Amino acid sequence: MKQLARVTATILFTLALVVLMWMFSDAVLLFLVSLVIASAVRPFAQRLIDRGMSRGAAYGLVYFASFVFFGGLFAVISRGLLSELQLAGDQLLNFYTRVTLTWPQGQEWQQTIASELPSRQALLDYFAGTDGTAVINSIVGFGSGVFDFLAQLVILLSLSTYWAVDQNRFERLWLSLISAKHRQRARTIWRAVELEVGAYIRSEVAQSSLAGISLGIIFELIGLPYPTLLALWIAIAWLVPWVGVLLALIPAVAVGLLVNIPVALLAGLSTIAVFAFLQIWVEPRLYGANRVSPVLVVLILMVMAQAFGILGMLIAPPLAATIQILGRELWFSKSPEEQLADDYRNQLHTLRQRLATIERDEVTAEVAATAQHQSYIRQIEALMDQTQAALGNAGMLNREQS
To answer: Which ranges does the record mark as transmembrane (predicted)?
Structure first.
């Protein structure tokens, strides 16, 4: 009866937790993204801390450098992007005007299409409104969206700074909710997830930035129209597994055909070359061989984009990485007892190596060890032999080692 009550309570608690997470999904997403950001910047700050910088100053410098880099990149992109969007709008409007004027006298299929198209003035009235209210509403909506994005960005940076600077206290807080016998296992899984998700995010952000910047410069040099717009699209397309290269290649070649065939070929070959370089040479050095399953990323990306929009798309790749790591740690990794035995064996092996190094250095330097020094070494060896025997009796060492 008690077991049934315990199982029922667990199920009800889990369902209540799922409902609460759904009700406060935006807050949960902000929380998760802040953890992802903190895990991504932690290695950079840790290097500064290891060199003697205080924890707060190290994280402050890393966040400031990141803000300067991405802020400067955003300023450069937005400047070219606005002019290219205006140019594209003018060219599309001129093309539409030419179609409505010439296609009614063209071939039969052109006449059929032209008869269904509204006039240029009707199209402008549809988008702008007769009194300009549609434009005003669009501007107000855009401004509101920008303000909301900036507010969420401030919240994300504040939360991620707290998780990063106060990591130990945060870990103690949530580990206190777990029973003592499972805390070591939970801490191991948590740190494995944090380490690999951080590496994955750093790898994807770096490769996406490299793809956009390098192809933007190449497109500008070969005379491809809308280089900034295409570079931004390619940087986003890189984040989509499998079909990302097609999403980047098709627009680049299509825009190149507006100029001539050689430019289109150069644009296509450049895109393929940059993607291949990033995939073959850069990614293994940034993230290693443990790749996240593309199928898992695509499935979660579809679900998160449908449920939460752009923010869901941003959280989908690290969420896929987290699920894959959790699955590996929970089902394919060693049990806590086996892991503990490995830790003991490794520590014992390391201690024996250090002791052997000390003895070898004494022989190499031809320094006569004092009787007290030799006694210390013999005592340490005896303690290690006793430890190894105790581990062997407990079944934590195989027979060859014990």
So the answer is: 7-23, 29-45, 57-77, 146-165, 205-224, 230-250, 257-282, 294-316
Helices (H) and strands (E) in the chain, counts: 15, 0
- The pLDDT tens digits of the residues spanning 133-170 come to 655 666 666 666 667 777 777 777 777 877 777 777 77
For residue range 318-372, what is the model confidence (pLDDT) as tens digits?
Answer: 788 788 877 777 776 555 556 666 666 777 778 777 777 777 766 555 555 566 6
* Residue 363 near residue 399, CB atoms below 8 Å: no
User: What DSSP letter does each residue of 281-298 carry, written as one string?
Assistant: IIHHHHT-S-PPPHHHHH
Cβ–Cβ under 8 Å, residues 167 and 59: no
**Pairwise CA distance, residues 378 & 373, whole Å:** 9
Domain ranges within the chain, ordered by starting residue: 1-165, 178-329, 336-393
Please choose, from the candidates 319, 275, 281, the residue with its C-alpha nearest in 3D space to the C-alpha of residue 300. Answer: 319
Calculate ∠ Cα 47-349-366, nearest 5°.
90
- For the chain, give the number of residues: 402
Model's pTM, two decimal places?
Answer: 0.67
